[in-house]
Design brief:
18% helix, five-stranded mixed β-sheet, Carboxypeptidase regulatory-like domain-containing protein, Immunoglobulin-like, globular
Length: 142
């Protein structure tokens, strides 16, 4: 076997080894739990949106974040098959009307009702429910 062929095989074996190790880490990662609930805006179920949960590193929490779509005022992090790590989290909610328009027909959520709402919550170490009532006007960022 010449030097180039040997280097190519070493490269292939290295890539496959890294890929297999990476797959194992994902399965053995931190324990995650389902969180679900309702999201209202101005007292009514939010028609469509996105909600994300990011561990609050300033309070010592770490790990992967979680997310879910909001449909007819409901969300469930089990839709991504992973859930959320327990502890303090920063929550980000984007709200939409769920109605595509000529101006925005490419966006599956419809037209923006509010840009973004943020708040902090504590997620327990088991499956749980948490409802969010987005105020009008919401706590927006720029």
């Amino acid at each position: 076997m010449d030097r180039t062929t040997r280097e190519n095989w070493i490269g292939v074996v290295t890539i496959l080894t890294v890929a297999c190790v990476g797959c194992g880490v994902a399965e053995n990662g931190p324990q995650r739990h389902q969180i679900r609930g309702n999201v209202t805006y101005d007292g009514r179920p939010l028609p469509a949106g996105k909600i994300s949960f990011a561990p609050d590193t300033e309070q010592g929490n770490s790990g992967p974040g979680g997310y879910a779509d909001i449909v007819d005022g409901r969300y469930d992090t089990s839709q991504d098959g992973k859930g959320v790590v327990p502890g303090p989290h920063r929550v980000r909610i984007e709200g939409y009307d769920g109605e595509p328009s000529a101006r925005n027909d490419f966006h599956r959520y419809g037209n923006m009702v509010f840009r973004v709402h943020r708040e902090s919550i504590e997620i327990p170490a088991n499956a749980s429910e948490h409802d969010f009532a987005v105020p009008n006007p919401p706590n927006e960022d720029e």
